[in-house]
Amino acid sequence: MMSAVLFTGCAAVLVLAALLGFFGIAHVRLSGPDAIERDGLAPGVRAPTWSIADSAGAVHTSPPVRPLQLVLFADHSLKSFPSVVDGLRELLAEGGPLEVVLMLRQPNPVAEPLLRELGLGSIAVLTGSSALYADYNVRVGPFAIFVDSDGLVRASSLVNYSWQVAKLRQLAGLPVAVG
Q1: pTM of the model
Q2: What is the mean pLDDT of the segment spanning 44-59?
Q3: Fold designation for 42-172
């Protein structure tokens, strides 16, 4: 009887150790710079479809009506990256057939006044959800995803500097293989 209790106790400890090891490996795999490189959607992949009204009631959709749309995921991170703000200003100054939307995870009454203060008042602020962020495979921001009017991702990356915004816009103009 004593050996059965000892055996059961040892088995329980080993199972617990295996579970802790599994969760430890999963945590390491899902965090850090290597994991962030896998965030977003690959070029050529179909982007999630949605239809969301901004605070003025204008409805924005994906796939977009315009030839190209930049969906910027940046809940609280945009003000912390002034170089990205500069890159967005340059992108908007170019004009052209581009729609830029800021996708929030949850409502934020400070977002629109902040964009106006930063000189980005023409960017539509949309309230998405954690599920929509997950559909785009976005965990951190600011994250930029260019989507074309066919609903295909043209370019996707975490952005920290203005040159990254410019490079993504350049990549979005290149042909992609449909996935």
Answers
A1: 0.76
A2: 94
A3: Glutaredoxin (3.40.30)
